[in-house]
Amino acid sequence: MKKICLGIVGIVLTFFSAYAQTPQKDSSTYKSRKLTFEEANLVSSYYKQDGNNAAVNGGIGSQKLNDISNTIDVKFIKWDKKDRKHSFDLEVGLDHYTSASSDQVDLKANSSASHADTRIFPSVSWSMENEKNGTTIGAGLSTSTEFDYQSFGGNINFSKKTNNRNGEFTAKAQAYIDKVSLIYPTELRSGGGGGGDDEHYGSTARNSFSGSLSYSQIINQRLQLMFIADLISQKGLLSLPFYRVYFNDNSVHKENLPDTRMKIPLGFRANYFIGDKIILRSFYRYYHDDWGLTAHTLELETPVKVTPFFSITPFYRYYKQTAVDYFAPYKSHTSADQYYTSNYDLSAFNSNFYGAGIRLTPPKGVFGIQRLSMLELRYGHYTRTNGLKSDIVSMNLKFK
Amino acid sequence: MKLVKPKPKINSLAIVAVSVVATLSSCITVKEYQKNKLNDGEMTLSSRKIQKTESSFQSYREGASGANGGKTGGGCGCN
């Protein structure tokens, strides 16, 4: 009798223990149909430069400039009934700069309104990824506003993965419909305008259209590559109205460049994971346009994973360009030139950009803040063979 | 008189094309569970977000742009 009772008690206890555990939701395959916050990034940078070839002064004078830039982007995702992933990206950027050269638009003023400006540039984008057939489509809108330049942009894109999901082809089309305010150097304004803040400026169009094709491919478990080809066409006022050009007869003119430009950049990326701790990131670009400018860019970065949550990344970038056909230094152009510029950004030069960054991704959050999943800091020094030098320090905070 | 054979011209574009074809033909299929190194956050085939302002100042201070996910022209008073 005792054995039967104990046996029944044992069966009952076993029965209850089978239901003792709280059922756990399998979150690994859970896909929310509601709009869910995915991540936010705050990128802040301080940039300062100096040189002696200001385009506002016809290729001479200070190029001192300071810029503070802040961009915040927020990403949301949701899944629809057909198991497709929708991503929504909202971004707002704010640049504020002060410039010694743009202060020279009015040569008579000790300091004019053009010595500083603020640019605001919001954008939104959407994409829909279908994991079953490996396709993604997307679209985006953007705008940018500063005192002398307004821009409206739109883009669409399409991606398709290969059957084995090791390769991906992407096509993108983009258009910018821009408006350039016609702010001339004060001595070149009709009526000898004083350039006061309330002066009404005319404007003209600058439109840019681009197509981009890229293909990425996984080679093996450590190496992946990408090929990129763009084609860009620009039409409208492609010079800047407040840039001066001095001819060899001491006469001063507004910069004058062709009203069309066709650009072809071709890029190549390769990332390789060496051992367990070092990554080699590389980028090469060949560029050519119909203004005669040809350029080569080479970038190398080597993130070193000191621990799985802390890495140090030294980097180096080399850039070389030839001059556009219409460039000549201060007081070198003649009245026989149809197009002319003394903007040293379009002259022949080499540049070196080097520095290092650190990246922290602790599992419990940066400084113990769970939501703050990543902190990245980066410093770079830039030098050009025609004398321009600059420094930039940047920070990226990622919240999840 | 000695006859000198002309040296064959090496077309750099041909070398690049052959290298690309050779690299792509050596691809192996990598399964999702083998992609732990490829999926590392620093292996992405794009510029880092922190490089946004760097790309911007380079598009202002240099004549070339594009093919890097950044500005291609337009949208700013840049080159």
Please specify the SSE layout and strand pairing.
The complex is a heterodimer of chains A (400) and B (79).
Chain A: H1 2-18, E1 36-50, E2 65-79, E3 85-99, E4 116-130, E5 135-146, E6 149-161, E7 167-181, E8 203-218, E9 223-236, E10 244-246, E11 252-254, E12 260-274, E13 278-289, E14 294-301, E15 304-307, E16 310-321, E17 349-360, E18 372-384, E19 389-399
Antiparallel strand pairs in A: 1-2, 1-19, 2-3, 3-4, 4-5, 5-6, 6-7, 7-8, 8-9, 9-12, 10-11, 12-13, 13-14, 14-16, 15-16, 16-17, 17-18, 18-19
Chain B: H1 12-25, H2 52-61
Beta-strand fraction estimate of chain A: over 45%
Kindly provide the name of the CATH class of chain A.
Mainly Beta
CATH architectural designation of chain A: Beta Barrel
Biggest sheet statistics of chain A: 16 strands, antiparallel, barrel
The count of DSSP E runs of length 2 or more, i.e. the number of strands of chain B, is: 0
| Order of adjacent strands in the largest pleated sheet of chain A | 1-2-3-4-5-6-7-8-9-12-13-14-16-17-18-19
Quickly give the structural class of chain A: mainly beta
- Domains of chain A, number: 1
Helix count, DSSP H or I runs of 4 or more residues of chain B: 2
Rg for CA atoms of chain B? 21 Å
Order of helices and strands of chain B: HH
Which spans of chain A have pLDDT < 50 for at least 5 consecutive residues?
192-198
The percentage helix of chain A is: under 10%
Distinctive features:
heterodimer, A: 400 residues, mainly beta, Porin, two-stranded antiparallel ribbon, 19 strands, elongated, B: 79 residues, mainly alpha, 2 helices, 30% helix, 0% strand
What would you say this structure looks like, in words?
- The complex is a heterodimer of chains A (400) and B (79).
- In chain A, 4% of the residues lie in helices and 56% in strands.
- The relative contact order of chain A is 0.11.
- Chain A has a single domain, classed as Porin.
- About 2% of the residues of chain A have low confidence.
- The longest helix of chain A has 17 residues.
- Chain A has 400 residues and is mainly beta.
- A 16-stranded antiparallel barrel of chain A has the order 1-2-3-4-5-6-7-8-9-12-13-14-16-17-18-19.
- Chain A is built from one helix and 19 strands.
- With 79 residues, chain B is an all-alpha fold.
- In chain B, 30% of the residues lie in helices and 0% in strands.
- Chain B is flat.
- Chain B contains two helices and no strands.
